[in-house]
Amino acid sequence: MSAADAAATPTLDVVALGNALVDVLAHAPDALLAEHALVKGSMALTDADMATRLYAAMGPGVEVSGGSAANTMVGIASLGGSAAFLGRVADDQLGTVFAHDIRAAGVDFVNPPSQSGSPTGRCLILVTPDSERTMNTFLGAAAEFGPENVDPALVETAQVTYLEGYLWDQPEAKEAFRHAARLAHAAGRRVALTLSDGFCVDRHRADFLRLVEDDVDILIANEQEICALYEVAEFDHALQRVNHHCEVAALTRSAKGAVIVSGDEVHVIDAVPVPTGVVDTTGAGDLFAAGFLFGFTHGYDLGTSGRLGALAAAEVISHLGARPETLLADLAADLLA
Q1: Does domain 3-19+67-119+141-336 have CATH number 3.40.1190.20?
Q2: Where are the alpha helices (DSSP H) in 170-283?
Q3: Of 4, 62, 149, 202, which is least surrounded by CB within 10 A?
Q4: Which of 281, 337, 263, 287 is nearest to 126 (CA)?
Q5: Domain extents in the chain
Q6: pLDDT value of residue 260
Q7: At what angle do helices 223-230 and 235-242 cross, to 10 degrees?
Q8: What is the pTM of this model?
Q9: Each residue of 97-147: pLDDT tens digit?
Q10: Are the C-beta atoms of residues 297 and 47 closer than 8 Å to each other?
């Protein structure tokens, strides 16, 4: 192999840009959401004062390093893939916890902690009796992520650079996205985007449409998000629109499974049953993305990649928390054979 060929060979499956957060998950009655005027199923940004009040009102919970794109990278590592995460934490206790947890999960995390600015971000997640999750996020240091936090070597050597839509709420992060996309495409790599949340799409629809049309090769979204992007009521109408705008779209539909579309190729993926019942939907989309991107970067066809995504999503909704408790490579052994 020549030096040029060696330089062109990717050495990493996926690198993600996202919010570096510590998740706090707790079961909560619907009344608690009403008391704090929270919209069930949404992700709302909050300030430090509101985060403090809500944390005090929550019952006993589970604290674990989180963030949407970080969860996806952990899922890829659990499947046996190579993953890296780019995000900003502070030099504080939660920052130390985040860095330790994600590295212990097998994900490369190279960003040093910030010595100034806001404290490490956290996401307060209320899980109601219907298993729906409502997220209230104090971004903290994560909101200060900018182009200087993008490691060019990781982007240039990754098959896919994965962008977390939630991060688009911050001006500096927008330029970081564009910078990373330019680096990836200049190196002959692909760029993937997750729309993250329907309310996030509503805030940034025009920007997201331009991103999808100009910079994104792989789009990952759920039914609500893709319909919000194209301002249509019917999923099939959104499916027809997105198919003209990117190479691959992987679209989840909750209990209806998922649809993977690429040009004339369409795969309808059944949801994987959860024998113990759904406990917490937190992380379902993140882990679907993990399974799909693992399959895609390891040469599996789109249908198999979608089934890997459905399997990973089913595992994470079977328990509290947004990261797998069972090694996904073992669960997926038959599909990966």
Answers
A1: yes
A2: 171-186, 198-214, 223-230, 235-242
A3: 4
A4: 281
A5: 3-19+67-119+141-336
A6: 98
A7: 70
A8: 0.89
A9: 899 999 999 999 999 999 998 999 998 999 999 989 898 989 999 999 999
A10: no
